[in-house]
Design a protein that fits this description.
Radius of gyration: 21 Å
Order of helices and strands: HEHEHEHEHEHHHH
Shape: elongated
Helix content: 40-55%
Number of helices: 9
Oligomer: single chain
Distance between the termini: 55 Å
Strand content: 5-15%
Number of strands: 5
């Protein structure tokens, strides 16, 4: 066992790691958590976490979902609001770049893809316990918002084509002041 794993076991509080949702991959996740030396409690829904942790706050919450998107972000946000000090890891089948940003903004400390959960959940847990954000490497560059929005790129393209601000405003059905704002 590595020193990091030993330190992680020593830092675990009396409260269990709570696994919420998606029964189809729950056994794999629970097994990975046991391998990390964590006590595990199961909840069917996010609102059932409070019943499992009556004496305090969970040290870790793992939210399982077969899809990402607005519903997952809402669940992550409600868990973060209810348990602000808990480490929150989101496990999903697949995720897009904008969904990664939404999940992190909603409070996820780590994101693990379901297909690789058995090998990546442990390292992700160690990272979030060290106050790091952990996302799959293939999505690492997608955490930050693009430098320019889609509309700003569109306006910049029209400027490059030689259109004036008033012509761009007319073409895009926007006020000229809006074009100037996007250009600034």
């Amino acid at each position: 066992m590595t020193e990091l794993a030993i330190a992680m076991r020593a830092s675990v509080t009396e409260q269990p790691a709570v696994v919420v949702g998606l029964a189809s991959i729950r056994s794999e996740i629970v097994s990975a958590l046991y391998d990390e030396g964590l006590e595990v409690a199961l909840a069917e829904r996010a609102d059932a976490v409070a019943d499992l942790c009556r004496d305090g706050s969970p040290s870790l919450i793992v939210l399982l979902s077969d899809r990402s998107g607005p519903g997952a972000s809402s669940a992550l946000s409600s868990l973060r609001d209810a348990w602000p000090k808990a480490h929150l890891v989101f496990v999903c089948a697949s995720i897009q770049g904008w969904e990664i940003r939404a999940a992190v903004a909603a409070g996820a400390d780590g994101i693990v893809l379901g297909a690789a959960a058995s090998s990546t959940l442990g390292p992700c847990l160690r990272a979030v316990q060290a106050d790091q954000i952990c996302v799959p490497r293939s999505h690492g560059r997608q955490i930050n918002r693009p430098v320019l929005s889609l509309r700003e790129k569109q306006i910049l393209g029209l400027v490059a084509m030689g259109y004036t601000n008033s012509q761009i405003a007319e073409r895009l059905y926007l006020a000229e002041s809006t074009i100037k704002s996007h250009l600034s």
